[in-house]
Amino acid sequence: MKYLIYKAKNYVPLIISLISVFILSLLWEKISLPYNKSNEIVGNYGNARHHQFNDTLRFILFISIPLFNYLLTFFLIDKENVLSIKQIINHNEFENIKIKTNNFSHLLILIFILIIIFNFLMVKFPDYKLDIFHEGQLLTGAMNYNLKNMFWTGSYLNTGLFYDILNTKFAWSLFDKENISAYRYFQQILNYSFYILIIFFVLNLSKLFFLENFKRNFFFITVSSFCLYFYAITYPYFPNYRDFFSILFLILLAGALLNQNFSKLHFFLIGNLSILSLLWSLDRGVFLNATLIIICFIFIFQKKFVEIIFLLLGIFFGWFTFLLVFGPIEFTAFINNSYNILKFNELWNGIIHPTPFSSEKNSTRATKALILIFLNGIIIIRYIFDRRSKIAPQTKNFLIIYYILAFFYYKIGLSRSDGGHIVIGSSLNYILFFVFIVYKILQIDFNKYNFISKYSNTFLLIYIFFIIILFNLSVVTKHNNLQNVINYKLRFTNFINLNDEFYLNEEYLSFYRELQKVTINDSCIQNFNYDPTIYYLLKKPSCTKFYKIFIIASKNDQVNFVEELIKSKSNKLIIDKDDVLKLLGPQKRFEIIDKYINKNYLNYIDKNNFKILIKNDN
Q1: Average pLDDT rounded to a whole number, residues 178-203
Q2: CA dist 241 to 163, 236, 237, 248, Å?
Q3: d(CA 402, CA 517)
Q4: End of a domain among 319, 349, 379?
């Protein structure tokens, strides 16, 4: 009977919360905010009369209600083992547990860094055809800056200063080559630098669980391998480095919680990430800043006022330095640009999130992600509220803050709910769930197994050797072979000197050459299509700051576009004959601009899928 009661106390809260998940999945489409009829933005949301915050509200309810039900049921049926909020706050003092890292641990770190470097040398160079829609954004952003010497005042940025401009600018300066190859090679360097950062993140994470040496090393090897496989193998050409400051934040946070002597410095540095993360990648920066706000509230409850002061000092220092370096005009343009992108992004770029457990496109992937976030929440509730939990206070703090950041991260998958964005939005939750699995495995008493306890380092070396073989087999299968390492210097020379025309398909190349002749005497050019690459190829600035018109949203943006176009006195305009990228075309999205063009421009040249218009002087 006691056994049944014990089992009930463990499983009833989970069953209740799962019933909540099922009910909310049935109600998913019923959870809906009234559509704003005055919405002026044309996109998937507007066409479906879908409020831009519907998916966010559905997600919050889908996760929060089952978690609340779990906690409430857990409290009601197992009250004696549930810590109150007051008890949790009163027992938040960090435990001073000394962590001894031996030489073998250092050897493991070195091995993983060497694995990353070796695979960097082995992978095939990214010599595939140019993605004019996405990659053109970065190439033209840097070219626009070179020609205009302006940041937000000269270009309307979509993602962030570093991603849209400085990324490619640094690449060209580093390799003294203003070409696509230099830009792509630098992308690889950034990605592999990010993988090294991941190693140090997992190292700090392994320390936070205060495991004995063998278990900590096993944790480090296993979780590092998973993270590298997730990022480097599953998404090798995706700009994973956009998560750089999110991972750096987690490293600094873990460092602050582990070492109280340096916590003030760590929190000051974390505060500086407020502005740096926004400049790096706007959406990631918003998630991090939202997390910093939550940290302040958590520390107020825990009476950690010194940490809050140093965090706020870091935030103030970072923003003030940014203002001094860029000046008030660029600062104001940055604020306006960022506000516009954040306000309208979902309206023009959003894809409606699929209903969980449905047959809709990407529903399976989305359902997995939601269940994963839900399960991670339950595990954290048990660690925090169960008085039998052996998790240290600083580990609890870290897990709460990590989960909050990971929760915000899923906004990536909510805003644009295709397969890739759903996975990237749930990436931190994938890692967290895997961490919990590994930690659960390590609750086994390995002292029972003499061969492991006696030859622990040998066992770990065999284990990591096995990991290396699997990892490299995956890379070889997907990218190339070991001969690449031997021929690296020759391969690099050939790659870095590739002519830009190599990356263009024949149809686009033909159009580009024709446009070169037509615009030879023009000081600037302007597109009214979704191709931002042509500015870079022609080495001419955009006549307006809207070089990627796909991100134009409001009527105010359209009016600004027309005003800047008139001011530039440009007499040519490039449009598509049809929606080449199979997206909703600019003629349908931007009524104000389209009317101005129809009234003031005439057809000049047809070439492949493009038209060149000329100003009607009459």
Answers
A1: 95
A2: 10, 11, 11, 11
A3: 55
A4: 349
| pLDDT number for residue 452 | 60
- Residue 604 DSSP label: E
Does the pLDDT value for residue 455 go beyond 70? no
Count of other CB atoms within 10 angstroms of residue 336: 12
Mean pLDDT of 41-67: 91
- Does residue 148 fall inside a structural domain? no
Residue 343 lies in a domain: yes
Residue numbers of the domain that contains 520: 505-615
The DSSP-derived string for 445-485 is -GGG-HHHHHTHHHHHHHHHHHHHHHHHHHHHHHT--THHH
Sign for the pseudo-dihedral over CA of 136, 141, 145, 148? positive
DSSP 8-state assignment for residue 353: P
Which of the residue ranges 130-134, 279-283, 512-516, 604-608 would you say has the lowest mean pLDDT?
604-608
Which of 349, 379, 406 represents a domain boundary (last residue)? 349
Tens of pLDDT, residue by residue over 363-396, are 999 999 999 999 999 999 999 988 888 888 889 9
Q: Is residue 389 part of a domain?
A: no
Burial 434-454 (b: 16+ CB within 10 A, else e): bbeebbeebeeeeeeeeebee
**How many separate domains does the chain show?**
2
Residues 218-225: what's their mean pLDDT? Answer: 92
Contacts with 155 (C-beta within 8 Å, 6 or more apart), sequence order: 141, 144, 145, 148, 164, 165, 542, 545, 547
Model confidence at 90, pLDDT cuts 50, 70, 90, reads low
Establish if 292 belongs to a structural domain.
Answer: yes
- pLDDT score recorded for residue 618: 61
Report the mean per-residue pLDDT for the chain. 88
Total residues found in the chain within this entry: 618
Query: How far is the C-alpha of 274 from the C-alpha of 42, rounded, in Å?
Result: 32
Nearest to 366 by CA among 434, 414, 406: 414
Distance CA 565, CA 613 (A): 14
